[in-house]
Design a protein that fits this description.
This protein is α/β, with parallel strands linked by helices. The chain contains 12 helices and 25 strands. Helices cover about 30% and strands about 30% of the residues. The strands form 6 sheets. Strands 17-18-16-2-25 form a 5-stranded mixed β-sheet. Strands 3, 4, 5, 14 and 15 form a 5-stranded mixed β-sheet that branches. It has a 4-stranded mixed β-sheet with strand order 6-7-9-8. Strand 19, helix 9 and strand 20 form a beta-alpha-beta unit. Helix 1 runs parallel beside helix 3, helix 1 runs parallel beside helix 6 and helix 4 runs parallel beside helix 5. The two termini are about 25 Å apart. The chain binds shikimate-3-phosphate (S3P).
Length: about 425
């Protein structure tokens, strides 16, 4: 087990370029693999999750060269994947498992997917149901609705799927299978989740449309296609990774941090909106758009924050940032309520439990609820042992909490940050003075 000791900091200053967006990096490898031609990806996230995606597509016969954050994917075309000789290991990655299932449902060979203990305890029924309705035959080998999954492809037909959850992984699995189906495939979700798959499919030449309905639900449609066409992709910095350094800049007094080239797709940017609602001093500079994805540099200055309510359609736009938002709330004046976020229970850990346990251990006033948590901010936090339970976002969120606690904290199993942010701790050391 690796342990990181974090000492309080009195000042965080400087510039930082966070690694590429995890969601976009996965999708770039996946679409590149089934496109015609070579996809060049720059600023790719070489974290463990995206490396799992690369390794699965290599086993499916795709040549992929990866040098640091530069990746070349020699696409095989929509029908060029070949049967793997072994089980596809998806590691800790829910995105790899769920999205690749959509692609595998449309192939001409069966295969088996499996991941680590955390992954193999996360619900897969949410993708098995629609993909099986389309004509695939996907079974949970353990009979518990989780991976390992056996995927037998079928001739697929397009469906309209009403998803009970706002989940980009579910939506993307169905849309990717839709490339191989007869007729149109569409997914309606209760509110709009991240739309990177729709944007990237369009830029690879697929026919995709989407809309948000007056009641806030959202539909995306795809038509079957003959070919996707490779293109170059510069992956924006991951707002989910930027969130830790934005929080450090806000919480540590007299800080000033410039986070460069951060992806600001509106379906991902809820974290910034909530920070601003809480009184954060954030300035967006150098805004641009590439491949439909907005980016900007974010200048963050130390701020005093107040409590807020985080709920409804905002939740899917910041679901991965809730651990760090809970940390901000613990330092804010007044009460913060997070609700409509039951999805937290099926992430890498049950994040309602793991956030509550660790914030309470630091001395915060936090009450877990069935779909979120209530935090009464303003109590001083003290350093302690933080149990990450191998959840990267818990490890990083509490490393930031530790910067403004009194006394030192130990982040247990800290190596799990490699899932989405290798180099996180050295960047923290570089920017934050002790
Ligand atoms: C992701 C979607 C989200 C998010 C995950 C990445 C994606 O999951 O939590 O980290 O890349 O599509 P859900 O779709 O389950 O909400």
């Amino acid at each position: 087990m690796s342990v990181r000791i974090i000492q309080p900091s009195h000042n965080c200053k400087g510039e930082i370029l966070v690694p590429g967006d995890k969601s976009i990096s996965h999708r770039a490898v996946m679409l590149g693999s089934v496109a015609k031609g070579t996809t060049r990806i720059s600023h790719f996230l070489s974290g463990a999750d995206c490396l799992s995606t690369i390794s699965c597509f290599r086993k499916l016969g795709v040549a992929i060269e990866a040098k640091k954050d530069q990746v070349l994917v020699y696409g095989k075309g929509l029908h060029g994947l070949r049967a793997p000789k072994e089980i596809l290991d998806t590691g800790n990655s829910g995105t790899t498992t769920r999205l690749i299932s959509g692609i595998l449902a449309g192939q001409s060979f069966p295969c088996v997917l499996s991941g680590d203990d955390s992954l193999n305890s996360r619900p897969m029924g949410r993708i098995m149901t629609p993909l099986n309705q389309m004509g695939a035959h996907i079974t949970s080998i353990g009979g518990n609705g989780c991976a390992p999954l056996r995927i037998e492809p079928g001739p697929l037909q397009g469906i309209h799927y009403q998803s009970p959850v706002a989940s980009a992984q579910v939506k993307s699995a169905v849309l990717l299978a839709g490339l191989y189906a007869s007729g149109e495939t569409s997914v309606t979700e209760p509110s709009l989740s991240r739309n990177h798959t729709e944007l990237m499919l369009k830029s690879f030449g697929a026919s995709v449309s989407s809309c948000v309905h007056p009641d806030g639900s959202a539909t995306a449609c795809v038509l079957p296609c003959e070919e996707l066409y490779a293109r170059d992709i510069r992956v924006p910095g991951d707002i989910s990774s930027a969130a830790y350094f934005i929080a450090a800049g806000l919480l540590v007094p007299d800080s000033e941090i410039l986070v460069k080239h951060v992806g600001l797709n509106p379906t991902r940017a809820g974290f910034l909106k909530v920070c601003q609602d809480m009184g954060a001093d954030l300035t967006l500079l150098n805004q641009t758009t590439q491949g439909g994805e907005m980016t900007a540099d974010i200048l963050v200055c130390g701020s005093s924050l107040h409590g807020t309510v985080i709920e409804g359609s905002l939740i899917p736009t910041l679901i991965d940032e809730i651990p760090i938002l809970a940390v901000l709330a613990a330092f804010a004046d007044g009460k913060t309520i997070i609700r409509d976020a039951a999805e937290l229970k099926v992430k890498e850990t049950n994040r309602i439990d793991t956030v509550t346990e660790n914030l309470a251990a630091m001395g915060a006033d936090i009450t877990p609820t069935d779909d979120g948590m209530i935090i009464r901010g303003g109590r001083p936090l003290h350093g302690t042992d933080i149990h990450s339970y191998l959840d990267h976002r818990i490890a990083m969120a509490f490393a930031i909490a530790a910067l403004t606690a009194d006394g030192s904290s130990s982040i247990l199993d800290s190596q799990c940050v490699d899932v989405s942010y290798p180099g996180f701790f050295s960047e923290l050391e570089r920017l934050c003075e002790r």
